[in-house]
């Protein structure tokens, strides 16, 4: 879902970092398009199931997209890809000190994934309603003969947000077909799920088969430390299909791949992908081979690569981002699943725990029907702050004003009245000073503007030099202008 071009920062459903996908038709091929993860869950509920959801969204076109990596021969396209470049050593220093860096973006950011099989596309989109609970206790895939268990010594260590509390739930959901991994966290274990099967012939592109599998590839044990960090202590399974190298132990290789995936996929920090020695050798002769190997393993999530060595991890900077999850409480809030939310709260999940888009109260703004009021009251009974802010400074009141008519107007007004009666501040300002009235005025929502004014919203508040009336005039919303001019 694209931004509306509003003066405001994105709302819950207007794009953003954490997005999900739905199926669209592109000629004879199918792809997945992006929407926000929690909006996707809400939309899926309206469609009453994955099959109906996928069917409902198989009609819109993306005419400018062509496949470069799919389930048929595309060798001609592969040969025409731009050649990645090894960065010159005398160029401006990059964030990774003296590491040798291959810029693989000419490959990884150009290739796209399509399939001629709508079933595969449906399988790809089916991820988006998954909270990962179906993978709890599932061992890594036995389809590969080289599955192993390696201790991580010394452990990999990352800072944890929310005062050192990492809730069970979703860490990574694939945004589009070019994202190849999902990651969940349950019972102190990280579960790495491969969306695709590994390419059977890495550098022979006359037969590339993408089957959109739901394979557990690795399970990683962890423990929270007393200083609010998490340590990854053991890995069971295998994260890439790279052949073993006699000069590097399997434990070193898997640890390096794991650290890259934690930094890039989970923490959302730029980091170079480790190129195993045999891939590095080929990439020195033909850099495109390094880019293609990175694409087959991690798709569009990799921008740079570096040779994998024993000392690689010690030469990388300490990650600056902190770890958090889309908790089961967040997912329950947007689904309106009262019983699951009650179970999570009862077992100690903080009611104000933050994910990227805010607290469970922020997510509850999309809860279906009467479950909205029940969910709000349940969270408040556990001392949730109804005026809590997300990282953009939005309270749930600000998040309830959306450009799309996802909720019938009368129900929306009833929801506003409910949260106001529970102590929600209608004049709460987000990070740049905008209020719910600013949003409603800019979007031309006449009845909502009227309700907000009657509820005490201040019409003369300025944000970045704009009052609600200014925004209504900019958009030409005459009825709103009349209300605000009284």
Explain this structure.
With 486 residues, this protein is of the alpha+beta class. The protein has a domain at 75-315. The chain is built from 20 helices and 13 strands. It has helices at 37-47, 50-56, 75-79, 105-108, 118-125, 161-164, 250-266, 277-285, 287-298, 312-315, 328-335, 338-346, 360-363, 371-381, 396-399, 409-421, 436-443, 446-454, 468-475, 478-485, and strands spanning 19-26, 29-36, 85-86, 102-103, 149-159, 169-172, 181-186, 189-194, 215-224, 229-237, 273-275, 304-307, 326-327. The strands form three sheets. A seven-stranded antiparallel beta sheet has the order 5-10-9-8-7-6-13. The protein has a four-stranded mixed beta sheet with strand order 3-4-12-11. Strand 6 and strand 7 (181-186) form a beta hairpin. Helix 1 (37-47) packs across helix 2 (50-56) and helix 17 packs parallel to helix 19. The longest helix has 17 residues, at 250-266.
- The rounded distance between the terminal residues' Cα atoms is 36 Å
Q: How many beta-strand runs?
A: 13
> Helical residue percent?
25-40%
Average predicted confidence as pLDDT: 80
Rg, alpha carbons: 24 Å
**Sheet with the most strands: spatial strand order:** 5-10-9-8-7-6-13
What is the oligomer described by this structure? Answer: single chain
Uncertain spans: 1-76, 198-211
What percentage of amino acids are in beta strands? 15-25%
């Amino acid at each position: 879902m694209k931004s509306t071009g509003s003066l405001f920062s994105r709302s819950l459903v207007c794009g953003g970092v954490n997005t999900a996908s739905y199926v669209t038709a592109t000629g004879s091929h199918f792809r997945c398009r992006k929407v926000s993860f929690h909006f996707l869950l809400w939309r899926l509920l309206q469609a009453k199931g994955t099959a109906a959801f996928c069917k409902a969204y198989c009609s819109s076109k993306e005419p400018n997209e062509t496949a470069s990596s799919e389930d048929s021969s595309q060798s001609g396209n592969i040969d025409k890809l731009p050649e990645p470049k090894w960065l010159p050593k005398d160029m401006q220093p990059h964030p990774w000190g003296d590491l040798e860096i291959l810029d693989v973006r000419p490959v990884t950011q150009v290739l796209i994934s399509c399939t001629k099989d709508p079933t595969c596309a449906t399988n790809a989109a089916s991820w988006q309603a998954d909270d990962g609970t179906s993978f709890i206790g599932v061992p890594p895939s036995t389809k590969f003969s080289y599955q192993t268990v390696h201790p991580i010594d010394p452990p990999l260590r990352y800072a944890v947000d929310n005062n050192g509390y990492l809730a069970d739930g979703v860490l990574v959901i694939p945004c589009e077909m070019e994202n190849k991994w999902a990651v969940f966290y349950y019972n102190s274990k990280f579960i790495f799920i491969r969306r695709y099967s590994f390419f059977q012939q890495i550098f022979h592109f006359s037969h590339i088969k993408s089957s959109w599998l739901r394979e557990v590839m690795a399970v990683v044990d962890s423990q929270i430390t007393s200083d609010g960090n998490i340590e990854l202590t053991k890995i069971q399974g295998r994260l890439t299909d790279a052949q073993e190298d006699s000069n590097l132990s399997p434990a070193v290789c898997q640890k390096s791949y794991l650290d890259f995936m934690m930094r890039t996929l989970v923490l959302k920090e730029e980091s170079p992908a480790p190129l195993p020695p045999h891939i590095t050798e080929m990439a020195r002769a033909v850099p495109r081979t390094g880019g293609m190997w990175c694409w087959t393993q991690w798709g569009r999530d990799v921008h740079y690569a570096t040779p994998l060595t024993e000392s690689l991890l010690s030469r990388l900077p300490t990650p600056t981002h902190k770890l958090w999850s889309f908790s089961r409480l967040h997912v329950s809030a947007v689904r309106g699943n009262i019983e699951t939310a009650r179970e999570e709260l009862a077992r100690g999940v903080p009611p104000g725990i933050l994910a990227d888009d805010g607290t469970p109260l922020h997510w509850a703004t999309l809860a279906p029907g009467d479950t909205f009021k029940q969910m709000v009251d349940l969270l408040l009974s556990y001392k949730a702050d109804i005026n809590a802010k997300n990282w953009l400074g939005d309270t749930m009141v600000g998040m309830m004003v959306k450009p799309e008519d996802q909720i019938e107007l009368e129900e929306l007004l009833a929801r506003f009245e409910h949260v106001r009666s529970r102590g929600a501040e209608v004049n709460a300002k987000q990070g740049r000073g905008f209020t719910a009235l600013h949003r409603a005025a800019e979007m031309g929502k006449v009845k909502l503007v009227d309700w907000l004014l009657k509820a005490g919203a201040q019409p003369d508040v300025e944000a970045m030099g704009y009052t609600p009336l200014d925004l209504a005039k900019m958009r030409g919303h005459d009825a709103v202008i009349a209300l605000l001019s009284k």
